[in-house]
Amino acid sequence: MSRFFQQGSDSETETSSEEDVPQRAPVAAFTFSDEEEDTKRVVRSAKEKRYEELHNLIKQIRNYRKIKDMSSMLSSFEDLMRAYTKAIPVINKEENGVTPRFYVRCLVEVEDFINEMWEDREGRKNMSKNSSKSLTSLRQKLRKYNKDFEDDLAKFRENPDQGDEEEEEEKEAQPDSDDDDDEEEDPKMTFRKDGSESSAGASKFAKKAVTDDDDESDDSDWDSDPESSSESSDPEDKNLTLREKFLKRTTDKEEEEKKEKKDKKDRRDKEKKQRKDDEEGEWETVRGSGAIPSEKPKMFAKDAEIDLNLVVKKLNEIVAARGKKRTDRREQIKLLHELWNVADAHNLGPAIAIKIKFAIVSSVFDYNPKFSEAMKPEYWAKLLDNIDECVEQLLATPEIMVGEQVLEENEILDKAPYKVRGCILTIVERLDEEFIKLLKECDPHSNEYVERLKDEKRVSHIIDKVQEYLERQGVSSELCRIYLRKIEHVYYKFDPEVLKQKEGELPPDTVTSVQVMEKLCKFVYAKDATDRLRTRAILSHIYHHALHDNWFQARDLILMSHLQEAIQHSDPPTQILYNRTMAHLGLCAFRHANIKDAHNCLVDLMMTGKVKELLAQGLLPQRQHERSKEQEKIEKQRQMPFHMHINLELLECVYLVSAMLIEIPYMAAHEFDARRRMISKTFYQQLRSSERQSLVGPPESMREHIVAASKAMRNGNWSACKNFVINPKMNAKVWDLFHQAEKVQEMLSRLIQEEALRTYLFTYSHVYDSISMATLAEMFELSRPIVHSIISKMIINEELKASLDDPTQTVVMHRSEPSRLQSLALQLTDKVHNFVDSNERIFEMKQGNFFNRGGGGQGFRGRENFGRQGQDWGRRRERGERAY
Amino acid sequence: MANNWAGPSRRLPENESSIAYVQMDGLAVMKMIKHSHEEATRNLEIAQGALLGLVVDTRLEITNCFPFPKHNDDTMDEEEYQLTMMRQLRRVNVDHFHVGWYQSADVGNFLNVPLLESQFHYQTSIEESVVVIYDTQKTTRGFLSLKAYRLTPQAIQMYKENEFAPENLRNLKVGYETLFVEVPIVIKNSHLTNIMLLELSEMIPEEEGSKFLDLGTASVLENQLRCLMDRVDELNQEAIKFNRYQQQVLRQQQDKNRFLVKRESENAARKAKNESPLPDDDINKLFRPIPAPQRLNPMIVSGQIQTYSQHISQFCSQSLAKLYITQALQNAKEGKSTP
Fold it and tell me: Which of A170, A294, A803, B142 is at 20 to 30 A from A70, Cα to Cα?
């Protein structure tokens, strides 16, 4: 928005310089309106504009001061500072670098006010937290800021009166201009309302315009006619104060002005005449500052011959109004449509049609003034249609060249190798962003969301088509961009055909999304010049593999990419993508029974307890001004749309289950270890919080189920553990979310049996002298070879001090493990040993010459020391004597 | 200095003779136990209360007691409460002399700074007062554990000086073992109570008595070992602290010596030039004595370690004895059953 606005003001000055040309192009109808607009808009020179801005802000601050609204005051003051820095070049030019008096005055006033507020301790205490905070920060800011103006401030304080009159004059002038504005607004309003009486209104309006012009000369601050603004930059005027500039009117100037006025009048008369000739009389419908007629207009005069030039000119005219303050954006879109229809009707060629389409698309984009908010659905539909058509047309007419590198002047709209300025890629990217914004806007649980989501297909389709178009052109950087767009639309979607293909149900040559991803990503890897696109492509690729159970490919990719080390240096959206990828990688590892990998993938996400934020699936409730409004806005923009969310409960459950499967045997194995470390903090927290409860009821939530399961597993009760983890409740909550739920459950119960067996052996091995493997196999419902292998593994890893007795199929315990009491006693001896060591060190020190300062130690050594000290004393005394 | 040391040692016996033993009434004991267990089960806090009684010759008779109110009650003035309590007890003809106080404890953790302090205050204001420690944990295992303690004169002296630097403690000859003196306790009941008890003992069914063979070794020992480990750790920390202090002192001493040597040579040079030598008084400014660490805490910790160790060895010997008894019983049973 602001960007366009900036542009608008630039063009403004341009037009003002053009002013002097008496008659404009023969397309007379619009000139009148333009003229009118110009006289009004040109009025504001750069200086004027800046000063007015400053004045307004100062006025605001004054108002806030009256009502003691500290926070608004702070923001206004910040605005003022900003406005002033903007105005500095102008001030330097106009005032020779002297700070304008009204500004200094404002600073002084604010400072006084702030000091007063600050002194008023009672008042400060009673203030709300927010405003007292604002007060402090305002005070600090002001102090810092006023340092730059110290001289001016001092000067001002010396004689503050001088400024007052000036100020008052200013105030007088201000409302005047406001009134004027209103007056001018009114007739237009009425005019717009009764369009049927257009001709009558038109004449009225024309008259009004003339009277306005007359008024102009009297208006004191109406000095922004081109003459006076050029005047003001005269060197002799430089030192004048603002007020003088406002008021001062040399006679010759006036004369000049009159002349100018006369010119204008003449011109206007001529135009009037022209208009009357033009019997329709419809072209006068003009709105103050915008270039767009508010009346439903006909594009061109009836008899005008519509050709390419005319349409282009018209288009430029409409586009020029884009982004200006009072431009009616809806109107603009309508106009452009009209124009497109006209162009279409007269068959002016595809190039101009595309050009107009581009204009329509960008004006639809502009329709929404706030960047952070989504557009309205009806405009969204329009946008989709337009872009769709646009792309269709581009594809249909291969001879059109569209590109950002084509300059406005070099466009070829009339003959075969058409060249049009514009970038379809940017438009599509913007479209995609808008789409995501739109989705985020609506409630994910409503039908509305579903309706919106249906557009995903169309968006994807458009992207496909644009991809096709760009492939035709073959610029690799653009291709990378569009590929990435495509990748981002594909990577999170689950394609059941991939799994079917894996199982051989589909022939291996069918193209599934995995192949598509592969192709796109490989292109990006090879051709991309910016690191960011490659990183994103790789992450999406891994995500996609993980989603489709291609565990090894996904793992190899992530290990090869070395993203783990550098990811914290990338931008937040990429980091979010990385987190999402890790989450899915963890899930994939879990499905493949790689519990350790699953745990490692998820541990970073789960440890902080801020999974929701890390995956950009919602903001945590705000804790005491932790983030500012802007920050929150930015964070909101980063959020993922709902259909891309990863189920957090599933994620947490998978994490906790894998933590349980690792942690519980570990805990059992290292029960007496003093230096036992925690593998998973989160899991411990859950366990501890349940232990703290005085009464543990049957589990309700997912976490309680896992905790209950962990407790069961601690005792080696695998069936209870399994029932806690896998039951209808948990299935509905978690396990059914997996693609092949039964397989996962099967895997899980097998793992639980194995780990429970390990835990059992760790916990109760000291009770047994020997244990038969057959019994164990029966207890844990595992086949004997598995039991055998588990126990062998434990023995090899020296986790279990035992040996296998083959003929009897038993495990013989070696009893080398100390009992609990024994291990405690061992620990105690360790500690006592440490203590004895440090005690001995103390004693050693004592045996050295430590106690010679205490005077009179005991024992032989002490006496020795004493003697030495005595010598010392003796020597010193000697010295002293000698000295005296 | 030798006289100083001799002082307390001479005073010690006469002090001990002031109270030879404590005689407690059954009523006071029961009240105390009740209060302590209530506190222990309710919120795991220690219970405290006042002991009332009389001094008869070398015997301290404790005939009644009442609990102190909990501290969290701000509205009540504690002293006021005690005074009114005693006044009202006097009205019902109960001994109202404040002769000490009691506190509940778990195993050996009663020894700490507040206990020392309050006992010091008691003993300085009421010469004969004792503190009775009641061990809830041990009692729940079936051993009534009541101990009466008095501060030794050295400890009182130490507190009076309020200096816990190593020098002081050494001069006073105070160690963890000489902080307190244990006074034997005798529980005496009225004849009526004795009769009642005898009657009650007849009502106990016979087989109830077999529980005394319960070993319960592991958990108790584990607990005590854990506590002991904590204490040892703490003491170790203290030792390290002290060691560090020693090193600092040593280093400072070396610096000082070096400085002195340098100063001496300087002075010699000045003397050669017939200038007045530099004064010596800035030495003390340059090398301020490093404050010695307080030794009270390590002393208390050592005391705790000692009590824990005593408890553990006591427990172990008891358990061993039980094991032998069990063996004997087992043999007897087998011998009975085989023929």
Answer: A170
Whether A398 and chain B come into contact, CB under 8 Å, resolves to no
More confident residue, A331 or A270: A331
Q: What pLDDT digit, counting tens, does each position of A331-345 carry? A: 777 777 777 777 777
- What pLDDT, in 10s, does the model give residues A36-85? 444 444 455 666 777 777 788 888 878 877 777 777 777 887 887 787 77
**Same domain membership, residue A342 and residue A323:** yes
Beta carbons within 8 Å of B299's beta carbon, 6+ residues apart: B169, B174, B175, B176, B179
Which among B218, B242, B253 is the nearest to A820, CB-wise? B218
**SS3 (DSSP) at B175:** coil
What is the separation, in whole angstroms, between the first and last Cα of chain A?
92
pTM of the entire predicted model: 0.54
**Among candidate residues A497, A537, A495, the one with its CA nearest the CA of residue A519:** A537
Classify burial at A270, counting beta carbons within 10 Å of its beta carbon; exposed 0-12, middle 13-18, buried 19 or more: middle
| Domain ranges, residue A321 | 308-474
Q: What is the pLDDT of residues B88-118, one digit of tens each?
A: 888 887 777 888 888 888 766 777 788 888 8
pLDDT of residue B195: 92
Are both A518 and A463 inside the same structural domain? no
Assigned domain for A256 exists: no
- Whether A216 has a pLDDT exceeding 60, the answer reads no
The reply to whether residue A876 touches residue B232, judged by beta carbons under 8 angstroms, is: no
CB contact under 8 A, A838 and B250: no
Same domain, A586 and A616: yes
Question: What element of type H or E holds A116?
Answer: helix A101-119
SS (H, E, C) B197-235: HHHHHHHCCHHHHHHHHCCCHHHHHHHHHHHHHHHHHHH
SS3 A43: coil
The answer on A569 and A595 residing in a single domain is yes
Q: Kindly state the average pLDDT of the residues A267-284.
A: 48
CB of B145 within 8 Å of a chain A CB? The answer is no
What pLDDT is attached to residue B221? 81
Give the one of B236, B260, B276 whose C-beta lies nearest to A883's C-beta.
Answer: B276
Kindly determine whether residue A827 and residue B247, on different chains, have CB atoms separated by under 8 Å: no
Which residues of chain B make contact with A875, given a CB cutoff of 8 A?
264
**A455: in domain:** yes
The C-alpha atoms of residue B20 and residue B59 are separated, in whole angstroms, by 6
Q: How far is A658 from chain B (nearest CA, A)?
A: 32
Gap between the Cα atoms of A542 and A746, Å rounded = 26
Q: What is the pLDDT of residues B262-309, one digit of tens each?
A: 888 888 888 888 877 777 667 777 777 778 787 788 888 888 888 888
Q: Is a pLDDT exceeding 50 seen at residue A226?
A: no
- Write out pLDDT tens, residues A733-765: 888 888 788 888 888 889 999 999 999 988 888
Alpha carbons A667 and A675: distance in angstroms, whole number: 12
Q: Say how many Å lie between the first and final Cα of chain B, rounded.
A: 76
Check whether residue A464 and residue A489 sit in a common domain: no
Q: Where does residue A855 fall: left (phi above 0), alpha (psi -120 to 50 degrees), or beta otherwise?
A: left
- Across B322-330, average pLDDT: 86
Do residues A698 and A759 both lie within one domain?
A: yes
Q: Are residues A513 and A411 in the same domain?
A: no
> Is residue A809 included in any domain, yes or no?
no
Last residue of a domain, one of A157, A190, A218: A218
- Supply φ then ψ for residue B70, to 5 degrees: -70, 150
Give Cα A489 distance to the centre of its chain. 19
ipTM over 0.90: no
- Is residue A64 domain-resident? yes
What's the structural domain count of chain A? 5
Do A467 and A364 share a structural domain?
yes
Per the prediction, chain B carries an average pLDDT of 80
A707 in Cβ contact with A690 (< 8 Å): yes
